[in-house]
Design brief:
Length: about 260
């Protein structure tokens, strides 16, 4: 508390105590005079009036001291709040500067993070199976292979473990065909000219950070090689998973069917 406010409060307290003592003394004198039957003089009448006047002065001084105390306390509270706000603003500014420096060092990080949330570029696996020669072609034109004797291959692509497949495209065409991949789309389990994709794709773990999305493909054309392609589109969760779409993985199952 300020020294001036303290002095005013002490003075007001002393004045109030003195006025109360004076009032008590005047009241006792009046009671004694009335008991004796003595007339009330002007001097005895002025005693209470003076005490009340002193009480008013003391109350004014005490009110002033209280107001000054409250003002000082409010100023201190305001200063504390301003100090805390300035500290928080300084912390926010420092964090913004660090973020700006990090963005300047790696300007592509924001773009990569957005790609991870909304979807990544598709990943592709392509394989080619040669003509099937399970047995010599018959003179009557019977095929050299049946579907049970087909060549088989498994096409896999690697995606982050948190990826969710949004589209899985299957494409097949003869190796010497001029038809575009777009026009060569096939469905799972569909016969596409002595070739077929498996009925269902499947996933399998590859590492702690990645997994494989795979499908099987078989071809039993005895005259032409057949190319197959797997295209996987996926989206990742908001967690900062690494975008790890790896190169094509082609895993032959067997040279011919059972």
């Amino acid at each position: 508390m300020d020294d001036r406010v303290t002095a005013a409060a002490v003075a007001a307290t002393g004045t109030i105590i003195g006025a109360l003592i004076q009032l008590r003394a005047a009241w006792r004198r009046q009671v004694a005079e009335r008991a004796r039957g003595a007339p009330v003089t002007k001097k005895s009448r002025r005693g209470p009036v003076t005490a009340v006047f002193l009480l008013l002065i003391a109350a004014a001084v005490a009110g002033f001291a209280l107001s000054q105390y409250l003002v000082g306390r409010s100023d201190r509270d305001s200063a504390t709040v301003r100090s805390e706000m300035q500290t928080q603003l300084a912390q926010i500014s420092a964090a913004a500067q660090r973020l700006e420096r990090a963005t300047q060092i790696n300007p592509g990080s924001t773009t990569h993070a957005d790609d991870d949330r909304h979807g990544a570029d598709p990943v592709t696996a392509t394989a080619t199976l040669g003509p099937c020669h399970a047995r010599a072609a018959a003179a009557d034109g019977a095929p050299a292979c049946s579907e049970q004797e087909a060549l088989r291959v498994t096409l896999c692509v690697s995606v982050p473990s948190s990826a969710v497949v949004t589209d899985l495209g299957l494409y097949a065409r003869p190796e010497d065909s001029a038809r575009s991949w777009t026009d060569s789309r096939a469905a799972a389990g569909q016969d596409v000219g002595r070739a077929r994709f498996a009925d269902k794709p499947f996933e399998r773990a590859e590492s702690d950070q990645t997994k494989q999305v795979c499908t099987g493909f078989s071809a039993w054309d005895g005259e032409h090689a057949t190319s197959a392609r797997l295209v996987v589109k996926y989206a990742t969760s908001p967690s900062p998973a690494a975008h790890e779409a790896s190169q094509v993985v082609v895993a032959p199952v067997s040279d011919r069917g059972p």
